[in-house]
Amino acid sequence: MPITIGARPLTTAEVTAVARHGEPVTLDAAALTRMAETRAIIEALADDTVPHYGISTGFGALATTSIPPERRVDLQRSLVRSHAASSGAEVETEVVRATMLLRLQTLATGRTGARPDLAEQYAALLNASITPIIGEYGSLGCSGDLAPLAHIALAAMGEGDVRDAAGARMPAAEALAAAGLAPIVLREKEGLALINGTDGMLGMLALALEDLSALIDTADLAAAMSIEALLGTDAVLADDLQVLRPHPGQARSASAMRAFLRDSGVVASHKTDDCTRVQDAYSLRCAPQVHGAARDTLTFAATIAERELASAIDNPVVTLDGRVESNGNFHGAPVAYALDFVAIAVADLASMSERRTDRFLDVARNAGLPPFLAHDPGVDSGHMIAQYTQAGIVSELKRLAAPASVDSIPSSAMQEDHVSMGWAAGRKLRRAVDGLSRVVAIELLTAARALDLRVAALGVSPAPATAAVVDRLRADVPGPGPDRYLAPDIDAAHALVVSGALLAAARASLTVTTPPALTTGVDQ
């Protein structure tokens, strides 16, 4: 079913559906009516003798320059052309589509003063899978994600380069013609309406929230498998211990880990007087606390995203009572802070995951497993270098956790003298999320190998959930044995993490109704 734009704010799931999975969109009829009503206000002001920013004046530091009526179409076209100034590697299709979608949503609020034609053009571009090509550098996250949004507007005008539904690069004019679309001609204020928004950084936040919701659940699964295979205790996961520190994320993660470890013969096997370990290392014992803090961080970021998705961001904006007012709502600070905060949580989740993996490989800490889980230690290196790969990623994630939003470089002749760098925060969070998925995949790969070895040595059964994960992994990755080309194993595990296949296998094995803690990583 098409996703309707303009009837209500979009959800992060809907943003992901359109941006990543190509769901079609349709425009709410009432939204088009709202746009027509506010457009009439803009057209009335176009002939006013009083200057109005972006309607009859220049932009930014040129806001005092009056533009005669016969040059105003040129003004809007020049604005878009000059601001389509990105550089660098091509931005991912899903990010561009998310950016287009969120600008369309703002147009549909009727608060920008743009004609309904513009909304219809953007919806048509999305539905035809025409994706403007944008370089990753160009936005300072203030006055909107200017360069990325300008490239999108340029494509709607039939200029610049795009990729078609098959991924082929071509001039925008050719792609529009092939889709039966005519280039749009911008009128008063419409150039501003298309580029003044936080849509790029918000799109990246929405996509990251959807990805991390599943990734934190998968990190809980990996931690549970590590606790089991390292002969750790599940006693620290008890609900009555969690309520002593009532953070909701902590309770959710502990509940998930308890479910994944339910009926584990491995855990039960060492609940005897012979077990002399008093307590486990922090990376096992404190997993609910760290994972839970990441969950709560995600909940905060989801709140910011929800508010932003309900916003109408433009400058100037048409108010509910029909005034056209300048404002600062385009400043990306709220989204930039959230993006940076989430990157901190991502780095810490990965750091703890790597520490659990490292314990498996050290005979002084792995409770009787072979060095590096090697088949023939000395001849074989086992998972030694898989941990190196984790360590390299974790080190980068720590660098990526340094906030972009604390930086600001003035622009536009000091008119725009404080900027958010929210786009940069979004770019580094995307890399961080990818890194976390790889780190967790290596932990699961290592924990599965260790669990195979442990089960063989003890002659007991693992938990149904963890056994299901090992079985699913073994369909693509062989079990313990002599050293083999390891990169394909890591790639296969990573693909199973990203697709959600390992998490789905664990959940399907649970013999009771899935508790609320397992349904999502973000409180709604």
UniProtKB/TrEMBL annotation:
<keyword id="KW-0369">Histidine metabolism</keyword>
<dbReference type="InterPro" id="IPR001106">
    <property type="entry name" value="Aromatic_Lyase"/>
</dbReference>
<dbReference type="GO" id="GO:0005737">
    <property type="term" value="C:cytoplasm"/>
</dbReference>
<dbReference type="InterPro" id="IPR008948">
    <property type="entry name" value="L-Aspartase-like"/>
</dbReference>
<dbReference type="GO" id="GO:0019556">
    <property type="term" value="P:L-histidine catabolic process to glutamate and formamide"/>
</dbReference>
<dbReference type="InterPro" id="IPR022313">
    <property type="entry name" value="Phe/His_NH3-lyase_AS"/>
</dbReference>
<comment type="similarity">
    <text>Belongs to the PAL/histidase family.</text>
</comment>
<keyword id="KW-0456">Lyase</keyword>
<dbReference type="GO" id="GO:0019557">
    <property type="term" value="P:L-histidine catabolic process to glutamate and formate"/>
</dbReference>
<dbReference type="InterPro" id="IPR024083">
    <property type="entry name" value="Fumarase/histidase_N"/>
</dbReference>
<dbReference type="Pfam" id="PF00221">
    <property type="entry name" value="Lyase_aromatic"/>
</dbReference>
<comment type="pathway">
    <text>Amino-acid degradation; L-histidine degradation into L-glutamate; N-formimidoyl-L-glutamate from L-histidine: step 1/3.</text>
</comment>
<protein>
    <recommendedName>
        <fullName>Histidine ammonia-lyase</fullName>
        <ecNumber>4.3.1.3</ecNumber>
    </recommendedName>
</protein>
<dbReference type="GO" id="GO:0004397">
    <property type="term" value="F:histidine ammonia-lyase activity"/>
</dbReference>
<dbReference type="InterPro" id="IPR005921">
    <property type="entry name" value="HutH"/>
</dbReference>
